[in-house]
Amino acid sequence: MRRALGILVAVAVFGLLALVPKISIGTHGVFSSELNSPGTLQLLGLMLVFGGVALTYDLLFGFTGLLSFGHALYFAVGVYLTAIATTRWDWSLGQALGFTALVGILLPLVLGAVSLRVAGIAFAMVTLAFAEAGSILVDKNPHGWTGGEEGVPVAYQKLPEAFVGVLNTKNLYWLALGYLAVVFVLVNWAVDSSPGRVWQAIRENERRVEVLGLQPFRFKLMAFVLSAFLATAGGVVYVLLIGGATPQVTTPSFTLALLLMVVIGGTGTRWGAVLGGAVYTFLDNRLLDWSDSERIQDLPNVLSTPLSEPLFVLGTLFILLVYFLPGGLAGLARLRPRRSGVALLDEPVATVEAELERV
Amino acid sequence: MDTFVLLTITGLALGAMYFLIASGLSLIYGLMGVLNFAHGAFITVGTYATWYSETKLGAIGSSPLRFLVAAAIGLAAGAVLGALVEIVLIRPLYLRHIEQALVTVGLSFVLIALVEAIWGPTERIYPTPKWMYETTTILGAQIPNDRFVEIAAAAGVLLALLGFLRYTRYGLIIRAGVENRAMVTALGIDVKKAFTLVFAIGGVAAALAGVLAGVYYGSVDPTQGTSLLIFAFIVTVIGGLGSLTGAAAAAVVVGLVQQYANYYASSGTGDLAVVLLLALTLLVRPGGLAPKVAH
Questions:
Q1: Interface size, chain A vs chain B, as Cβ–Cβ contacts under 8 Å
Q2: CB neighbours (10 Å) of residue A47?
């Protein structure tokens, strides 16, 4: 019953979002122009993409308990390979996407297998180091492929006509919505599957999972590859939406931004992570415009100077949330506390135990 | 030969800055289990406090003296900031390591954004006494004098910290706390003061690294601290979290490898080599070079 209700709500929300490009209403300064203008649709598209990417990070951090500082690398693979293959190597879009998908599976498989040999802070550091290696590589601009500071544009001649030009932004918006929907369905399906229950059991108590005779390494690698691959797909949609790759997406700050998104939304929740990604992206883009408004500029300097930096506002919001709303935005909606006692803490492990007994 | 000498001394100077940052990170992690992401902001704040006070200290005529006074203000700013962060932000989340790390991540965003809002994102020329840029000839190599200052500062800090840990009461508490915090608390010793102390020490060391980095690069921008922090993290992990001597050894290795590879292979290779070194170390010895002991 609850499950049916959940599906109904999800379908309704996605249905409403799909109608947005058809609705022409003013936004009263929330966005810079009308709801279905290309500028607004592009920002909305970005919010949807980052909602999806935040959800892939939540799969890793919130559901499996793996604190990775290198998720940006896999997003950047999608962004850069699509741009490089179409522009520098002159490949068709189909070839570029096929190659990106291949790398998007093999790279996390290899790097994940290496990094998962260590746990905890060491795991965080190794993933950070690999991501930093990617960032340095992009900065070095080998063979002129990555374009260094300037980045690489996507060759628009290679794209289907429906995705080219300002007037077609609505199609890109639908593409972003489609991406989010696919990620949402896949993550929902994955965390409710048997491996998904093992992931959550690992998060709560890895030793106990081992005692049950399962190998946590394999399950963690599975979660790592799945979330990295979905992040790569997000990178592809992002680069189509923006029109080119820039080195910002490879930086450790970007991974930390993903962490902020998930914690703002609520770790280990599905809607929460999506909401966090969307809200973060929205504020990151809009705060700068708002800070130019008279209401802010009229404030004394002590207030208006920090308020003009989006990251100052987002960072402060984030710190406040960690203290006062540990469940994130999703915690606001939850009526009963998620974990009311010790008995509930190992619930995912107990579920796996019960499942093993049945087999 | 002279190139090799120059590379070696420059590598050591770079390693010296990594060590100054890593020493604080390592002590904080060893004692409290907190990975302090705000450490990069400590560096940036120390650097900017020095730069800003130097511009305001026109009353002091002699430029080296002005720089020393400004640097002292920068170090004090680092200490105060470190202690404040521990008391205000870290303490309420006692023993919740993930939340503590998250708060320091948020803080690093906030502080760097604040510096950027006040002084802008562009580079500033760093005030440096002329003597620092003059060179001394060693084995035929012309070495800028600031390299020696950096190495001496790190060596001094290493000796001072080792002495402090070895011969003072608080040092003893910190060493014991790194070894087994639960036991120290059970013996009725107030470890919390030691927490504030290690954050203040970390803040001073990071600010010192920032001041020296300003001299080394000749300029300062808000993101400089963050890029240094990544390599300091790598040094901390290679050296073994919680070990000062381990961090010192790892800093020397990382600084040298980076310089040699950047020169003899190609620019940027050194950074990749360091990353590779970290991956290899963790796979062979997941605990790092030295075990978790603060001496």
A1: 108
A2: 22
Rounded-to-integer distance, Cα A327 and Cα A61, Å: 14
Q: Which residue has the tokens 């904080």?
A: B28
Express each pLDDT in A12-48 by its tens digit.
888 888 888 888 777 777 777 777 788 888 899 999 9
Pairwise CA distance, residues B57 & A161, whole Å: 62
Among the partner-chain residues A130, A136, A315, the one whose CB lies closest to the CB of B110 is A315
Question: DSSP state, B61?
Answer: -
Token representation of residue B269: 């290779």
Whether B237 and A125 have beta carbons less than 8 Å apart is answered as yes
Residues of chain A neighbouring B98 (CB-CB closer than 8 A): 67
The reply to whether B241 touches chain A by the CB within 8 Å rule is yes
String of b and e for A28-44 (b: at least 16 CB within 10 Å)?
A: eeebeeebbbbebbbbb
Are B191 and B173 contacting, i.e. CB atoms less than 8 angstroms apart?
A: yes
Whole-model pTM: value is 0.86
Neighbours of A293 (CB within 10 A): 10
Chain B partners within 8 Å of A314 (Cβ) = 109
- Among B102, B233, B286, select the one facing A118 at the smallest CB separation: B286
Copy the structure tokens of residue A176: 């972003």
**A87-139: per-residue pLDDT in tens?**
888 888 899 999 999 999 999 999 998 888 888 877 888 888 888 888 888 88
Rounded CA separation B77/B79 (Å): 6
Question: Positive or negative CA dihedral for A37, A41, A42, A47?
Answer: positive
The closest alpha carbon to A280, from A229, A329, A337, belongs to A329
Answer whether A83's CB lies under 8 Å from A158's CB.
no
Q: Quick one: B119 exposed, middle or buried, by C-beta within 10 A (0-12, 13-18, 19+)? A: middle
How high is the pLDDT of residue A274?
A: 93
CATH class of B2-284: mainly alpha
d(CA B252, CA B258): 10
* Residue found by looking up tokens 């500071």 in the block: A149
φ, ψ for residue A45 (rounded to 5)? -60, -45
Q: Do A125 and B117 touch (CB under 8 A)?
A: no
Does the domain at A34-358 match CATH 1.10.3470? Answer given as: yes
Among chain B residues, CA nearest to A307: B117
